[in-house]
Amino acid sequence: MSEEQTVVLGVTGGIAAYKAADLASKLVQSGITVKTIMTYSAAEFITPLTFRNLTGQPVVMDMFDLESEYSVEHVALAEAADVVVIAPATANIIAKIACGIADDSLTCTILATEAPVVVAPSMNDNMYKNPITQENIEKLKTRGFIIVEPEFGRLASGKIGQGRLADLEKIIEVVKATLDNKR
Ligand SMILES: Cc1cc2nc3c(=O)[nH]c(=O)nc-3n(C[C@H](O)[C@H](O)[C@H](O)COP(=O)(O)O)c2cc1C
Hints:
Bound molecules: flavin mononucleotide
Number of helices: 8
Shape: globular
CATH superfamily: Flavin prenyltransferase-like
């Protein structure tokens, strides 16, 4: 990749949130600028400090933070993004996006961006199979969101089912292909 590309990484409050750190690191190592937005729930699982250090960029969480360099315009990251990737994406964030809710930094950014959005769901298999979640995912697909389906395998609960965050290499492949398509 020659010119600089910016990926806005949305991290939400799932057990796989720790994997987002590795994703951020791998994207940075590919020469991509990564700007992270975390939900408050995500910060229960992993700290903003991790992403700030791995990406060398400020991490956005509080929309109303006067100290944030992005707070002057709550949609600044929506405009900066070449691609937005949400990994892991909770059932909650998927439902919020499907309904057009914009009550935090991440959902405002998603609603405001014109960039392609890649969504990598990760959740308990029953949450994933729930027709409400499936309908929400279908709705996102029809709106042009790119879904990286979760894998079948061992879940955090110890159960076997579909809901594991897709392999990071797969997510990176989709993000890079989406960046390339955008040129
Ligand atoms: C220990 C624990 C693990 C969780 N793991 C997941 C998960 O993997 N996927 C999911 O959709 N929700 C999970 N949740 C529920 C979310 O944290 C909850 O729905 C939260 O409101 C999501 O907020 P956010 O979408 O704004 O990040 C988990 C909750 C707890 C307490």
